[in-house]
Amino acid sequence: MDDQLTKDRLTRSAWLDHGLRILARQGADALKVGALATGLNVSRGSFYWHFKDISEFRLQLLQRWQERTTDQVIEGIDTSIVGAARLTHLMKLAFNEDRSLDRAIRSMASTDADVAKMVASVDARRVGYMAKWLIEAGVESQRALPRAEFLYWAYIGQSAVMDPRHSAITELDVDDLSALFTR
């Protein structure tokens, strides 16, 4: 098969992965069909083979972001960890991850109502799951939601901290904080 034909027939998944990388590195303004195709060294036709237009692509990017950063994380923790260890594990993952994609999507949400709606849905799901895990760890149900919300606010706010001395947290500190929230 001709190499150019192979290149022009990238999978939908390859386009979405590339789009997420570009979004994280350069922001929403960089999500243009021509620039994306050039970055993948393929024609614009490859894009339109998989997506009706840039709006559909952006929607599928958001869905991919939700799947990877929420659905798969929750499923992985639910199937492999029990009790209070779930919250500790989640905190270690969350507070030590690269947050550039999350910041870019939240930036998009500040000017796009549809993106804001998706982000709000993801936020609610994440907080709800943390509250559920807190209850399973023994926290009274009326205290679980405010604690989960507070932890989530800390997670969201951490990515805004500019001084690198205050933007990271050790695993030992995460263990200590997790214990505070599960008492």
TrEMBL record:
Matches recorded under InterPro entries: Homeodomain-like_sf, HTH_TetR
One Pfam family from the record: TetR_N
Record keywords: DNA-binding
Residue ranges annotated for the HTH tetR-type domain, each copy included: 9-69
Residue ranges flagged as DNA-binding region: 32-51
SUPFAM superfamilies: Homeodomain-like (SSF46689)
Entry GO MF terms: DNA binding
Protein name stated in the entry: TetR family transcriptional regulator
Source organism (scientific name): Tardiphaga robiniae
